[in-house]
Design brief:
The structure is a single chain. The protein has helices at about 15-25, 35-50, 60-70, 100-110, 110-125, 140-145, 160-170, 175-195, 215-230, and strands spanning about 5-10, 30-35, 75-80, 80-85, 90, 135, 150-155, 205-210. The chain is an alpha/beta fold. The protein has a 5-stranded parallel β-sheet with strand order 2-6-1-7-8. Strands 3-4-5 form a 3-stranded antiparallel β-sheet. The relative contact order is 0.21.
């Protein structure tokens, strides 16, 4: 049986989730945002263990975080054609986008045991949806689904990614703010690319797509064309 998974990776603000969601809709597949599960676990840790932070001597140890995720539970639930994160049976899709979660999610996602737990949940979710799943993240093609028949690595210049991120927030894009955001994204790229656990990189057999000068519609069309070529039917 062919694994019907499209793995879409790339740096922060490269448009992974928007592209993956649109590709899934075009193909009639499900969409799974791996970052949502990391955010859901972070939300659970903040709500139940406080703000102390990760580390073996704190209440944010790997064992306690995973135990909490299993007990509540933290899980992915298929709603329509989108996998939504739930904590203790509650849809937390909006709550996980809060600033308090954003500040701490990288800390939690850097814990090897947490990454392993999340990877298992993602694989199980994809196998439950035989029609096909588009998964986006930072290590989907290299670690989570290394056998995916289509792997795409989206990239764009830090300046363009910063412009897109600020435009999403609305209002006029201030040049100074743009420079600060671009610098922050470049620093995030460096950290993600050099981390010891599942570093950000394109899989050897990934299609690298520079979207700096592409519209969302253009990049979606390119990925859909690749999918129909490699995964017909």
């Amino acid at each position: 049986m062919t694994l019907r998974v499209i793995a879409i990776d790339g740096p922060a603000a490269s448009g992974k989730s928007s592209t993956a969601a649109a590709v899934a809709r075009r193909l009639g597949w499900a969409h799974l945002d791996s970052g949502a599960l990391y955010r859901a676990i972070t939300l659970a840790a903040l709500d139940h263990h406080g703000e102390q932070g990760a580390g073996s001597s704190s209440s944010w140890s790997a064992q306690r975080i995973i135990g909490l995720a299993e007990h509540l539970p933290v899980r992915l639930v298929l709603v329509g054609d989108v996998f939504r994160p739930e904590v203790a049976g509650v849809d937390v899709e909006e709550a996980i986008r809060s600033e308090r979660v954003t500040r701490r999610v990288s800390e939690v996602a850097a814990i090897p045991e947490v990454r392993h737990w999340v990877n298992v949940q993602q694989r199980d979710a994809a196998l439950r949806h035989a029609a096909g799943v588009v998964v986006d993240g930072r290590d989907i093609g290299t670690v989570v689904f290394p056998d995916a028949p289509l792997k795409v690595f989206l990239t764009a210049s830090p300046e363009e990614r910063a412009r897109r991120r600020l435009a999403q927030r609305g209002g006029r894009v201030d040049p100074n703010e743009l420079r600060r955001e671009a610098a922050a994204l470049a620093a995030r790229d460096q950290a993600d690319s050099t981390r010891a656990v599942a570093p950000l990189r394109a899989a050897a057999d990934a299609v690298v797509l520079d979207t700096t000068r592409l519209s969302l519609d253009d990049q979606v069309a390119r990925v859909v064309a690749l999918a129909r070529d490699r995964l017909p039917g």
